[in-house]
Amino acid sequence: MRTRQPLRRALVATTAHDRLSEELRREVADELNIGDLEPLSAAGADLVDHSAKGNFRALGKRFAKDTPRVAAAIAAADAGALAAALKESGTATVVVDGEQVQVSEAEVLVSERPKEGWSVVNEQGETVALDLEVTPELKQAGLAREVVRTLQEARKNAGLEVSDRITVWVTSTDAELSDALGKHAEEIAREVLAVELHQEAPVGVTLVDVAEGTEEDLQLSYWLVKA
User: Fold this and answer.
1) Of 16, 72, 105, 200, which alpha carbon lies 20 to 30 A from 97's?
2) Range of 141's domain?
3) b or e along 142-152 (b: 16 or more beta carbons within 10 Å of the residue's beta carbon)?
4) Is 1 within a domain?
5) Is residue 2 part of a domain?
6) Is residue 168 within 8 Å of residue 186, measured between CB atoms?
7) What is the per-residue pLDDT for 70?
């Protein structure tokens, strides 16, 4: 996922979220290029799919010849419930031939996989879940960021000062990018310090010291001059 692609939200552990001030949440969101930072409880459902299987070596020490039956019971159990019980108390209950049997964390191998559309990581006791769904609106915002990157590089290559104002002309043969240029024109102009942003080629305009180029990946052509 490109870092310039805005995403809708990231979720963090509720206790961690509650300890952050609104100012810090906004700063984290800006740094991650996401719309909002929310607590995990906002997801409304578990973000991770679990699977569980028996650790035959550990089970064998306690269950000996019954190990295959206990392992089969572990595999047949609700993996999410097993994971939750093991995390809470270090033990969980499975049903072996109609009887309840307790198993420990060492005897169960639990694996986690983020559900589709999410990237989830747990490190040093903290969990962060990134919502990877890219809506059409977010995709357009990402395209606008790519245009800003292209124009900023053009400014730099032209030897312009950081504070120099510019006039820009941009065109694209890609309909989606053209739409994004229209919807995000003010944002693009603000980011590149453009006093004017024209969504057309500078036909009939005499330009002095013009910086021009194309970005093939974006199907973008641009021209810019110091204002």
Assistant:
1) 105
2) 137-226
3) bbbbbbbebbe
4) no
5) no
6) no
7) 96
Same-domain pairing of 75 and 160: no
Q: How far apart are CA 91 and CA 76, in angstroms?
A: 17
Q: Give ∠ CA 51-79-106 in degrees, rounded to 5.
A: 80
Alpha carbon distance 194, 172 (integer Å) = 18
Question: Does residue 106 share a domain with residue 14?
Answer: no
Comparison of pLDDT for 17 and 181, the residue scoring more: 181
pLDDT range class, residue 46, cuts 50, 70, 90: low
Pairing mode, strands 34-39 and 48-54: unpaired
Q: What is the pTM of this model?
A: 0.68
DSSP character at residue 184: T
- Could you report the per-residue pLDDT of 138-158, keeping only the tens digit for each? 999 999 999 999 999 999 999
219 and 156 belong to one structural domain: yes
Structure tokens at 137: 């609106």
- Residues 159-175 have pLDDT tens digits of 999 999 999 999 999 99
Domain harbouring 84, CATH code: 3.30.720.200
Do residues 212 and 143 share a domain?
A: yes
Residues 210 and 121 in one domain: no
CB-based contacts of 181, cutoff 8 Å, min separation 6: 144, 147, 170, 172, 188, 199
Considering the domain architecture, whether residues 67 and 87 belong to the same structural domain is answered as yes
Closest-CA residue to 108 (of 78, 147, 133) = 78
Give how many domains the chain has, as a whole number. Answer: 3
User: Do 69 and 96 touch, CB atoms closer than 8 A?
Assistant: yes
The two three-digit tokens of residue 3, written as one number: 């870092």
Contacts of 45 (CB under 8 A, 6+ apart): none
